[in-house]
Write a structure and sequence with these properties.
- InterPro entries: Homeodomain-like_sf.
- It is a single chain.
- By secondary structure, the protein is mainly alpha-helical.
- Helix content is 75%, strand content 0%.
């Protein structure tokens, strides 16, 4: 099994079992045993770190693709992650949830996994803020924080109950925040 395929496999296992998964659970059905893993990943945390880094790269690529998609409006780009979450949930996948969970599972701010998760959360915030600035939203930083709070809440709930309704509710809340910000920009709330 190639490195990327193994990381994808472990990512799926992490999404199913959570960050408390044991090494045997992570390697289940991979055809790889612990001794084969050791030269590349000396311990479970090294494997989880590399897996999360790989997942972060996947999310970053997706964000860049959405940013460059000229068929989408800026508003659609801001809300596209909810459509992506809904599509992934149908496949029993939970992109982004692991980064929220990792900050709790690895609370030491000096932990590489915690730092990586914080960077990924910052990347998500920057994505929102950049698009809001393109819309010329007043106080785009505050609005981006509000939108990220909704997204993190949605991801947290998905980790627990896996309900598509949570994605729909979060998307509606994000749309409302965006509409209020646009109304404020256009003087409707002055």
């Amino acid at each position: 099994m190639q490195r990327e395929a193994l990381l994808d496999h472990v990512l799926i296992q992490l999404e199913q079992y959570g960050l408390a998964a044991t090494l045997p659970e992570l390697l289940q059905d991979s055809g790889i045993n612990k001794s084969q893993l050791h030269p590349f990943w000396p311990d479970r945390d090294a494997l989880i770190f590399d897996c999360l880094r790989h997942h972060g790269q996947q999310i970053d690529i997706w964000q860049r693709q959405v940013m460059l998609d000229e068929k989408l409006t800026i508003e659609q780009k801001l809300l596209a992650r909810y459509d992506q979450l809904a599509m992934r949930l149908e496949k029993n996948r939970f992109p982004g949830c692991l980064f929220v969970a990792a900050c709790s599972a690895y609370p030491d701010e000096h932990s590489q996994i915690h730092q990586l998760s914080q960077r990924q959360k910052q990347s998500s915030f920057d994505y929102s803020k950049t698009l809001l600035r393109e819309l010329d939203i007043e106080d785009s930083e505050l609005v981006a924080k509000q939108m990220e709070l909704i997204l993190e809440g949605c991801l947290s709930r998905l980790m627990v109950n896996h309900h598509a309704d949570d994605i729909i509710t979060a998307k509606l809340l994000a749309e409302d925040i965006l509409k209020i910000a646009q109304c404020r920009k256009n003087g409707a709330l002055s």
